[in-house]
Write a structure and sequence with these properties.
Chain lengths: ~375, ~290, ~90
């Protein structure tokens, strides 16, 4: 369906990524946010707090990230589209509730504007070191979807995509920004509401007697109901059966956890988005995401000027990881060059997916700044030689 | 001609997920007793069941959510109150009850307890206080009285316990009461009164844990404890909450301690926005829009 | 003629004794029968004293008993209970 015009600030704007993310959320139909201040993410909810009273909705600053990350889920079950924003230390605190959202299949968005870590780290400077945490941070087996914007425009566009994916798969979606993308100011074009596709909640049309909160009819994603509609359903974080009742047996565990995994993995082709260029005859493919992809682009251009056959694969979806694409490329390239603002996270995934068929060259950066194009170029040149 | 008596007319039955009976609570545990009072309160106050939601945390009392036939949410340890806050704010028409235990609400959930009370979020909190962490095997809770024996204080506790009514009153709750599982009718009445109030209501119910707290402290079984409550409780309505702290063998002050009025969170929010924004304030979000 | 009667769901009972103790007119006692879990459920020993106050029902943590008022009509002088095992397996 089309976006609700009340939330769409149509026009051409000159705003930073944090602000654009907020506008994306509003355009997607988010009308509830619970947050806790943490640099460099705070502007997202500050803007939401000032916008939402005239759009219709609610913002509450909770007492900590533990509260924020579950209050938003209460709001989802009350009928709203909801999200929160945070950075590293807050992201760590939210992990239990990300797992709760995955287990209870609560559609919602967690925005992480990554900064230097570990611990308090570099509050005002970028890193991309939460990427593995986004995937594995909570306990147990579960799947999430993670998106990585690389510009304020993408902070707008992809936030809408994040909400749509959350609703389609009833899963928490991690929106992995970084401090530079969050704080860089660029042109952001917000189209009219009728040009924005928004996915409605997968709400059940079944009768009160027929409805099974976690029943699936071949489709791996159950239909949802909200509190107050008369369904009298039960939601629990315990391993549960199709009625939502706790059923703590290995059989139910197997069935449930595998379904949670498969509902994402089986649709990976649809979920994985990337930007590609000149992959067909590449010797080396640069795999990057977020702000690093902007620097990598410059390095790739410089490599082309030197006549090197370098392809680009920019990850827009980081999780699920595009295994198939990497394996396919590994069949005909010499190496993957993976620059990232960490000491090796997505590079491990590239290496794993390449399955020994091509080398993976990490261009690490401990965070606090961005790579120089020359650093990345150097790695490309060396990788091309072998 | 005999009148046929409807033997399925146990008033609590309509609120139970009978397909999940019998429940997991121990013989002599008081949680089930509190559910009877809760059911009675629902009947007496004629609360609309469709717009009633129940949120619980983790622990023995947390299992209440799974046994009641309502829209119910068994959330994470200590976080029933913030979940309930989000639920209530997204759908203000809901009546939201938080039903959880003393450890869940006052230890790990302590921060959320005081902030929700401070904000006067319109929630009805039923805190079943068995003075212990029961589900996990009998560890010390912030409410365990001094000199009690628990699994993590095998030589006896030496910390002072929280006086929960005092804590939540100080934080801003508008309705504070305490009963024991002996006081079934008074408890039902308090819960009914809480349903009539807008704002943060907190009802503490002292309850036996015969398997752990009572056993480790040689206080007998559930029935012994109920008799003990009968003997040691003193109804002291309106008494200052600073005076209702519990000790290992001392008096149990029960009653309605606080019943006051102040605007709840949503009223204050609305008033502020109306003052700041006038006509531009848009209150209701398009819930239907979410579903297409 | 009693003003009330009691209904017992034998299989849910865990013999905690609350109903027996707190019935104001001492209508109940724990029986010597067993339910399938091995507990002695209560039985009515003084049906004529039942007022139908439902304090037993209010106290029962297992939702295994409740009392109700009867409009003055003759009825069989027995509690309704599911078959108690009493010595059988």
């Amino acid at each position: 369906m089309k976006a609700d015009p009340h939330g769409v600030l149509t026009g051409t704007h000159f705003i930073d990524g944090d602000h654009a993310c907020c506008e994306g959320a509003l355009a997607a139909g988010a009308r509830f946010a619970a947050g806790y201040p943490i640099t460099p993410s705070t502007e997202v909810v500050e803007r939401f707090a000032s916008r939402v009273p005239t759009v219709g909705g609610c913002f509450i600053q909770m007492e900590d990230e533990l509260a924020a990350s579950i209050a938003l889920q209460g709001a989802v079950w009350g009928g709203a589209k909801a999200f929160t924003v945070t950075s590293g230390p807050g992201f760590s605190l939210m992990m239990e509730h990300i797992g709760y959202a995955a287990m209870t299949e609560t559609p919602c968005v967690f925005v992480d504007v990554q900064r230097g870590g570990p611990s308090t780290g570099l509050p005002t400077l970028p890193a991309q070191a939460d990427m593995m945490q986004a995937r594995w941070g909570s306990h147990g087996d579960y799947e999430i979807i993670a998106l990585c914007p690389n510009s304020p425009q993408e902070c707008f566009d992809l936030t809408i995509k994040a909400f749509n994916l959350a609703e389609e798969f009833r899963v928490p979606v991690m929106f992995m920004m970084d401090e530079v993308v969050g704080h860089m100011t660029e042109k952001v074009v917000i189209p009219s509401a009728d040009q924005i596709e928004v996915l409605p909640r997968k709400h059940t049309r079944k009768s009160l007697e027929e409805y099974l909160p976690y029943g699936t009819n071949g489709d791996l994603v159950p239909e949802m109901a909200h509190a107050g509609e008369g369904y009298k359903f039960h939601v629990t974080g315990l391993t549960h059966d199709e009625r939502g009742y706790p059923n703590m047996t290995p059989q139910t565990q197997d069935k449930l956890v595998k379904r949670l995994q498969n509902k994402i993995r089986n649709a990976a082709d649809r979920i994985c988005m990337f930007e590609e260029d000149r992959l067909a005859d590449a010797d080396v493919v640069v795999v990057s995401y977020g702000i690093t992809s902007r620097v990598a682009q410059r390095a790739i251009d410089m490599a082309h000027e030197r006549g090197l056959k370098v392809g680009k694969l920019r990850l827009i979806t980081a999780w699920p990881f595009p295994d198939k694409k990497i394996l396919e490329l590994a069949g005909h390239v010499k190496a993957f060059v993976v620059p990232e603002l960490n000491l090796g996270q997505m590079a491990r995934e590239v290496e794993r997916a390449a399955n020994g068929k091509a080398r993976t060259v990490l261009v690490p950066h401990a965070g606090g700044g961005v790579h120089s194009p020359e650093e990345i170029l150097k790695a490309i040149v060396e990788a091309s030689r072998c | 001609m005999l009148n046929v008596i409807d033997d399925t007319a146990n008033p609590v039955e309509q609120f139970l997920r009978t397909d999940r009976m019998p429940h997991i609570w121990c013989p002599g545990c008081g949680i089930g007793t509190t559910v009877n009072s809760f059911a009675r309160a629902l009947i007496d106050s004629k609360v609309d069941l469709q717009s009633l939601a129940l949120v619980s945390g983790i622990g023995c009392t947390g299992r209440v959510a799974g046994y009641v036939k309502l829209d119910s949410f068994h959330t994470t340890h200590g976080r029933a109150i913030p979940f309930a806050t989000g639920l209530k704010l997204a759908n203000p028409k809901l009546n939201v009850v938080v039903y959880s235990g003393d450890g869940d609400l006052s230890a790990i959930g302590g921060n959320h307890l005081i902030h929700a009370a401070r904000r006067n979020i319109d929630l009805k909190v039923i805190c079943v206080n068995n003075l212990i962490y029961a589900m996990t095997g009998g560890q010390t809770a912030p409410t365990t009285p001094g000199h009690a024996t628990t699994s993590t204080n095998p030589y006896g506790t030496f910390e002072p316990a929280f006086n929960l009514p005092h804590l939540v009153e100080a934080a801003g709750a508008v309705y504070v009461a305490r009963w024991t599982t002996f006081h079934v009718r008074q408890l039902a009445r308090s819960i009914s009164e809480a349903f009539q109030k807008k704002g943060f209501s907190f009802i503490e119910v002292i309850s036996p844990c015969p398997t752990l707290y009572q056993r480790r402290n040689k206080m007998g079984d559930g029935l012994d404890t109920m008799k003990y409550y009968k003997e040691k409780s003193k109804v002291k309505n309106g008494i200052p909450t600073s005076e209702v702290g519990l000790t290992l063998h001392g008096e149990i002050a029960v009653g309605k301690f606080v019943d006051r009025d102040r605007p709840d969170y949503q009223s204050m929010m609305r008033a502020q926005y109306v003052e700041a924004l006038g006509d531009r304030y848009v209150e209701e979000s398009e819930m239907e829009f979410v579903c297409g | 003629m009693a003003k009330g009667r009691v209904s017992i769901v034998v299989e849910r009972c865990k013999a905690c004794g609350f109903c027996v103790e707190f019935c104001p007119t001492h209508v109940l006692a724990l029986s010597s029968a067993f339910n399938s879990k091995g507990y002695h459920p209560p039985h009515v020993v003084h049906p004529e004293k039942c007022s139908g106050c439902d304090l037993c029902g209010m106290y029962c943590p297992d939702f295994a008993i409740y009392g109700m008022k009867v409009p003055g009509v003759k009825y069989p002088d027995e509690t309704k209970s599911e078959k108690a095992a009493g010595g059988e397996k």
